[in-house]
Design brief:
Layout lengths: L1 E5 L2 E7 L4 E2 L7 H13 L6 E3 L1 H6 L10 E3 L5 H13 L2 E3 L5 H9 L6 E3 L8
Antiparallel strand pairs: 1-2, 2-3, 4-5, 6-7
Length: about 120
């Protein structure tokens, strides 16, 4: 367990190889977005959340609330399955590409932007 100072308050953080537990953490709309999204993602691939959201998770405020997630290279058919599952899960791809075009973007190290349908959340 780690005790972390957060704006003059203390936050208990417990962790293991696969999990971080922050007791008494209030789940924000952004936290719920991330949890819902990764439930779909983890069915097809491993992932790591990096950059700004990690700071937000641990109590820092930021001007933007985008979430950066890295995945390892996946086969095209696996990506197409993820694409389909995300669309069925009320997500939309903000890049103007179909599944094949989005896959090509990923293989060229370009980012894909995803949000809940009828929203641009989490990006502002």
């Amino acid at each position: 367990m780690i005790r972390q100072t957060n704006d003059g308050k203390h936050m208990d953080i417990q962790y293991s190889d696969q999990q971080i537990d922050i007791p008494d953490k209030y789940l924000t709309t952004l936290d719920r977005f991330v949890l819902d999204f990764i439930r779909i993602l983890e069915q097809k691939t491993s992932y790591v959340i990096v950059r700004g959201y990690v700071a937000i998770l641990f109590g820092r405020s930021r001007g933007t609330e985008d979430v950066d997630i890295l995945i390892p290279p996946v086969e095209k058919d696996t990506f197409e399955q993820m694409h389909r599952a995300l669309l069925e899960g009320e997500y939309e791809f903000l890049n103007a590409e179909n599944a094949s075009g989005l896959y090509d973007m990923l293989t060229n190290a370009l980012r894909i932007r995803i949000a809940k349908k009828r929203s641009v959340y989490p990006e502002h």
